[in-house]
């Protein structure tokens, strides 16, 4: 009997939109329903590249923006083989940020065209669903530890939001993250269950390309 593959589900959005909270709640609920699911986060600060990124985000070191962009992409490629194997074995991955964040933040901080920003991630596994958590500036600024990291500035976050909207394709949906946490979770759970069922017999796609892996 052929194993049904898992889904690649991604939560995107500006800083403090509640992505980490919702990712964990979603994985917990999927597992409770007997659906194998695991969390992944980017940047993954535990890897060798991730440790450099952590120093940059924490303002310990300064690096050229182009270098930072390639580091973030390299961090995703570090996990590519493991993620692909996990998904094809039947486990759904719920990911806190992915390639869209990399492109959006670089475009916002450097003014570079999104097509340039997307290129290093071409060929990564394509998400089956991207949920864009949208949050107001007031709610964002009220969240714990707002402003503690390098990119947590309102003007920059507006640019990031604009870039994320430009990256949307047919796999994306928007979710109001200003709503009650449990209501947001309920919406995401319904979207996740639908996506998992829809893609279980389909090949895993390739990011920024129409060819299956």
TrEMBL record:
The record places domain Thymidylate kinase-like at 11-187
Signal sequence span is none
Q: Name one GO biological process term.
A: dTDP biosynthetic process
What EC class does the entry list? transferase
Give the domain of life. Eukaryota
Pathway listed for it is: Pyrimidine metabolism; dTTP biosynthesis
Q: What is its EC number?
A: 2.7.4.9
Carries keyword Signal?
no
Tell me which PANTHER family the record gives.
THYMIDYLATE KINASE
Please state what the protein is called: Thymidylate kinase
Q: Which gene encodes it?
A: LOC107223482
């Amino acid at each position: 009997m052929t194993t049904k593959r898992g889904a690649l589900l991604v939560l995107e959005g500006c800083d403090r939109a509640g992505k980490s909270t919702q990712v964990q709640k979603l994985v917990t609920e999927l597992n409770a329903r007997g659906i194998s699911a695991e969390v992944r986060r980017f940047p993954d600060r535990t890897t060798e590249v991730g440790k450099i990124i952590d120093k940059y985000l924490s303002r310990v070191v300064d690096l050229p923006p182009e270098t930072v962009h390639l580091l973030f992409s390299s961090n995703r490629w570090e996990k590519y083989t493991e993620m692909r194997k996990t998904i094809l074995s039947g486990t759904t991955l719920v990911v806190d940020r992915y390639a869209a964040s990399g492109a959006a933040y670089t475009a916002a901080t450097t003014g570079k065209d999104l097509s340039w920003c997307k290129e290093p991630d071409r060929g990564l596994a394509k998400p089956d669903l991207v949920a864009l958590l949208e949050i107001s500036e007031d709610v964002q600024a009220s969240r714990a530890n707002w402003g503690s990291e390098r990119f947590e500035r309102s003007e920059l976050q507006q640019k990031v939001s604009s870039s994320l909207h430009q990256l949307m394709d047919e796999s994306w949906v928007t979710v109001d993250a200003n709503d009650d946490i449990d209501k947001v979770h309920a919406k995401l759970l319904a979207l996740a269950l639908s996506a998992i069922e829809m893609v279980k017999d389909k090949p895993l796609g390739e990011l920024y390309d129409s060819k299956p892996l």
